[in-house]
Write a structure and sequence with these properties.
- By secondary structure, this protein is an all-alpha fold.
- The chain has helices at about 1-30, 35-55, 90-125, 125-140, 145-155, 160-185, 190-195, 200-210, 215-240, 250-265, 270-295.
- The protein has a single domain (about 1-60, about 80-295), classed as MetI-like (MetI-like fold), CATH 1.10.3720.10.
- About 75% of the residues lie in helices and about 0% in strands.
- Helix 2 crosses helix 11, helix 7 runs antiparallel to helix 8 (about 200-210) and helix 10 (about 250-265) packs antiparallel against helix 11.
- The radius of gyration is 23 Å and the shape is elongated.
- The two termini are about 40 Å apart.
């Protein structure tokens, strides 16, 4: 009975601390209007990418009577039309839809894998820590872009699911390292020592006390790899290694194809500038949101 009461008191402290931390984070984000605006823009663009291709299909329709038109309000071709008469804005959103699938799934897989490896390595320590971190070091030795290009070429055609797995296999490493360092720090905190003193099992300490207190660390790592994923995916697809053999184009693939058509077929510059503009907006907003979240989570930041 005393042990149960002791565990309850031990659990109340970190829970209250988490609630206070969430309130501080909320106040920190509210005081950063640029971050809030960037978040709204990013959410709006992503919702458009997710919903438009599903609710209003037909982006592949050809209009040969409206070929290679410059951006105009006439017919609402704000990004112009391609050499086949397709609306550039519309097929840019189609490309964003595929990019979102790849990036979101890869972020989820990389985060789950990185948190699992980092938390186990940091909590267990000893040879488990050494083995897991040496595996991470091996994966992190070659340059990421070189590995991605090789894997994309080897596994062609690269569908969204396959692409997500390829990206996740490389980007779990920074998550694992950050989580491991945080777990090592948390192990020496008073509430962990108190949980051990009242007889809590390793499993209970791990899932009840350590993992819930990794929220801020995971959030910062997640926002960091999210921006990296968007840029890496666009870079690889720019070389037409994924989109060329699949019916699901991405933003990077559309930029590469548009630039190629401009050089070889004298197509308009807007065929690649449209998807490039959307990519830049997503990248800038994602980085601003990531920086804002990191600033709000920083203990010594001004509230």
């Amino acid at each position: 009975m005393a042990s149960s009461a002791g565990e309850l008191l031990v659990e109340e402290a970190p829970f209250a601390a988490r609630r206070g931390r969430l309130r501080r984070i909320g106040r920190g984000l509210v005081r950063q209007p640029v971050v809030l605006v960037s978040g709204v823009i990013l959410l709006s663009v992503f919702l458009a990418g997710l919903l438009v291709p599903t609710l209003a299909p037909g982006g592949d329709a050809l209009h040969l009577d409206n070929v290679d038109k410059a951006p105009t309000f006439s017919g609402w071709h704000l990004f112009g039309t391609s050499d086949l008469g397709r609306d550039v804005l519309r097929y840019s959103i189609e490309g964003l839809h595929t990019t979102e699938q790849i990036v979101l799934l890869a972020t989820l897989i990389a985060t789950v894998l990185g948190v699992a490896v980092g938390a186990i390595a940091g909590y267990r320590g000893g040879w488990v820590d050494v083995v897991l971190m040496r595996i991470a070091d091996v994966f992190g030795i070659p340059p990421a872009i070189f590995v991605l290009l090789v894997l994309y070429f080897y596994f062609r055609p690269v569908e969204p699911l396959k692409a997500s797995l390829i990206f996740a296999c490389l980007l779990w490493i920074p998550v694992a390292r950050v989580v491991r360092a945080e777990v090592v720090s948390l192990k020496s905190r008073e509430f962990i020592e108190a949980a051990i003193s009242v007889g809590a099992s390793n499993t209970r300490i791990f899932f009840r006390h350590l993992v819930p207190n990794l929220g801020s660390t995971i959030t910062v790592a997640l926002t960091s790899i999210f921006g990296q994923l968007i840029l890496l995916e666009a870079t690889v697809e720019f070389f037409q290694l994924g989109e060329s053999e699949t019916s699901q184009p991405t933003l990077g693939g559309l930029i590469g194809a548009g630039k190629l058509y401009e050089i070889t077929l004298n197509a308009g510059w807007w065929t690649w500038a449209g998807p490039a503009f959307i990519l830049v907006v997503v990248l800038v907003c994602a980085n601003l949101v990531g920086d804002g979240v990191a600033e709000a989570l920083r203990p010594n930041s001004r509230r």
